[in-house]
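Lab meeting prep.
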Amino acid sequence: MTQAINIIKQEHRNYLALLSCLQHLVADMKGSDPRAHCVLFHAIVDYIESFLDCYHHPKEDEYLFRALRKRHPDSEELIRRLEHQHREGHDLLEALKAALKDLEERGTAAVPRFAQAARAYQAHQYDHMRAEEMEVLPLALRHLSVADWQKIDAAFTAHDDPLFGDDRRAEYRKLYSKIVRMAPQPYGFGIKQGG
């Protein structure tokens, strides 16, 4: 297996864990003031937007999908679908951000909208990652050359996941700490803001 595939799969696992945490936090809002969770929700959304939309998806599009499209033209329809899903994911993230703003402004009355936006985003991302791992990666392993993989590996090893990686950048170390501190147990330490 190539370095890039290992990185893609690890980033997917990290992302799934974060989305699972988001869903549990949404479920845990019942009976409490949802605005108490907004800082943590913002931290999660900021990470998704800054890492996945700026690093992970563009590298898949530019390196992995481009190479597969060139080496295996029959994959065109699949690649177009996945590229479209990247754009849809961005739109669903924007809807989640709008629902979060509504949650901050209206509190409990906005919980159903936020919960629905979080579920829609999570379901979309699960389907998308499943298609990448079950359809694209096996095709790439069969059809890409050693030279293709060297370029793809170089692209994916040129960055480290700023939240979950070994070399977290300062702003993401703060975000990671905030998520772990603020997420209720068993997802994190459950320390109240300012605690």
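Slide two material, second protein:
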Amino acid sequence: MTDTRILLGVVGRPHGVRGLLHVHVQAEDPASLESYGELLDDKGRAWRLRWERDGVARLTDAEGRAVADRNAAEALVNMRLYVDRARLPAPEADEFYLTDLVGLEAFGADGAVLGQIAVVHDYGAGASLEIVGEGPPLLVPFTRACVPDVDVAGGRVTVLLPGFVDVAPDGAEDAA
């Protein structure tokens, strides 16, 4: 894996006129963002975050300059804040970071290779796995019902493909 950054926050709308910003946290403990010190954006710029109140933070750049006003804050909306994976605590037993799934082999219930996890998508309503292999990519909900076994150390996941109905060109339905 070439990108070892983990998304920890996304800058939201400005709060007031003094450069404060709402920050949407992707970590279990929102306070942890401040403890990581330097956070990087998509352009590689370094930022530091200090919580002012619940969900509202002040950002400063690498030179220690705070976001000055509402206009400057508006320019940062939707900026993603990352930390290097090596700086995160080790997960507990039977836990993992979603990024740890990328590269794992996906096997069907019958043991057949479905492909490899290329991307973990998470748009807020739950994660899904994009599996690439023979044919078009598969997009599978990352739920226990569809992915009952995750073995990061063993480099594999078991995937139970949800049932669906194919509609034949003549309009007849076939259960797949």
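Talking points for slide two:
The mean pLDDT is 89.
The longest helix spans residues 70-74.
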